[in-house]
Amino acid sequence: MANTYSIGEFAKRIGRSPSTVRRWEQEGKITPKRLPSGHRYFDESDVRAMLGGAPLRRVTVVYCRVSGSGQKDDLASQVKAMET
Predict the structure, then answer these.
(1) How many domains does the chain have?
(2) For residue 84, is pLDDT > 80?
(3) Would you say residue 60 lies in a domain?
(4) Do the domain assignments include residue 81?
(5) Residue 81: band (very low, low, confident or very high) from pLDDT cuts 50, 70, 90
(6) How many CB atoms are closer than 10 A to CB 61?
(7) Looking at the domain assignment, is residue 65 inside a domain?
(8) Strand, coil or helix: what is 29?
(9) The domain that contains 13 carries what CATH number?
């Protein structure tokens, strides 16, 4: 089968953890397809449905702190690193 995904692969494609995908299945929020062996799988239509046509965007937040005015240079270099 082309473009089929295991739970782990599907979770990675939609930016979630496999445990979240399993929980969603238990809650009835998603219904995976099943192979004759009973293994669950997802396909591209499931990925599109979860992403709503647009990829999820992750944001990284960096916290910088200085203790005193003697560390202003450190703060400036941290700000510069965050801007690049």
Answers:
(1) 1
(2) no
(3) no
(4) no
(5) confident
(6) 5
(7) no
(8) coil
(9) 1.10.1660.10
Tens of pLDDT along 5-19?
A: 999 999 999 999 999
Does residue 60 carry a pLDDT above 80? Answer: no
**Domain containing residue 27:** 4-51
DSSP per-residue string spanning 31-71: --EE-TTS-EEEEHHHHHHHHTTS------------SSGGG
| Structure tokens, 2 | 């082309």
pLDDT of residue 64: 67
42 domain residue, yes or no: yes
Q: What is the mean pLDDT of the chain?
A: 84
Q: How far apart are the C-alpha atoms of 34 and 46, rounded to whole Å?
A: 13
What's the pLDDT at 77?
A: 83
Segment holding 18, helix H or strand E: helix 18-26
For the chain, how many residues are written? 84
Contact 31, 39 (CB under 8 A): no
